[in-house]
Amino acid sequence: IGRLGGLGYCDELKFVTKAHGESVCTVSRWDCKKLRQLISGNDDTLDVAGLIKEMVEFSQDKYQQSTKEHFFIVEMHNVKSTKDILLDVPAIKSYLSQVAPVPFDSQKFSFAEKIDKELRAKVPFYETYKIFVNEEQIFKPYRNEMRISQENKDQVKEIQFKQFQNGNGLLGFGWIADLQFLGVISPPEYMDGIRLRSGNIQIGDKNILSEFFRENRFNNYVIGEIHITDTKLILNSRRDNFEDNDYKEEFYNSFVKEIGIPLSLKIRDASKAR
User: Fold this and answer.
1) Among 94, 87, 72, 73, which Cα is nearest to 10's?
2) pLDDT value at position 44?
């Protein structure tokens, strides 16, 4: 379903695939323009199988390079979307840097290797991938320094690791940056908020945990990530939260205890001191 999601946003969708050991390359071309014509017509006798037969071309060609190579390539030709959002390169790069399972940038974030090492040791299925936009590799947006306002910046002094548990074991594991809590981190920095991740892919948006602080805005004073470790925390179909069960409640209760209340108190204390 996810791979066919591109049908509505281009004129041709092309899949090119080859398995390890195969000597042929398989190509599947989906004529999206023809699809739109067929489903908007008056022919109500065409079923799904007939529709696919009408608009899909399938071929196999001899693969000229090593049979050990294996890949799955998706190509969208003549991309079209409302206000060309799918062709907005800065927006795409920003989205992928926050949501996709990309690595930290060790050149800009001094704690990158330390965090990555801990996550690989504690989080099952944690992995990072090299993703490029116009030949530029995408990294998570975390840096040592972040802007609070035109005049103020905050600095990451250290990293704290946190565990989130119920009576049976570990539900999640993550990191929180030690900051001065000078104010809400500027949204264009793309770092604000403690992000929730599963398989190193972001769940929901940056505000998913805001309601578990004393004030929602407090979540935007901090940066960090929590990675889900227990498979009983099941993502819903929209991937913006979990399915309702006891583990969901236990996880959020643990978050309030470990992060929500303590950080809310620290932020208020910092505000009073200023």
Assistant:
1) 87
2) 75
pLDDT (tens digit, 9 = 90+) per residue, 141-178? Answer: 999 999 998 889 999 999 999 999 998 899 999 999 99
Task: Indicate the pairing of strand 193-198 with strand 223-228.
Answer: parallel
Find, among 11, 19, 15, the residue nearest to 2 by Cα: 15
With the CA atoms of 184, 193, 225 and 179 taken in that order, what torsion angle do they form, in degrees rounded to the nearest 10? 10
Q: Kindly report the three-state secondary structure assignment for every residue of 132-171.
A: EECCEECCCCCCCEEECCCCCEEECCEEEEEEEEECCEEE
Question: What is the spatial distance between Cα 263 and Cα 221, in angstroms, rounded to a whole number?
Answer: 9
Strands 56-62 and 24-31: antiparallel
DSSP letters for 62-109: E--S-TT--EEEEEEES---GGGGGG-HHHHHHHHHHHS-PPP-TTT-
- Residue 273 burial (CB count, 10 A): 8
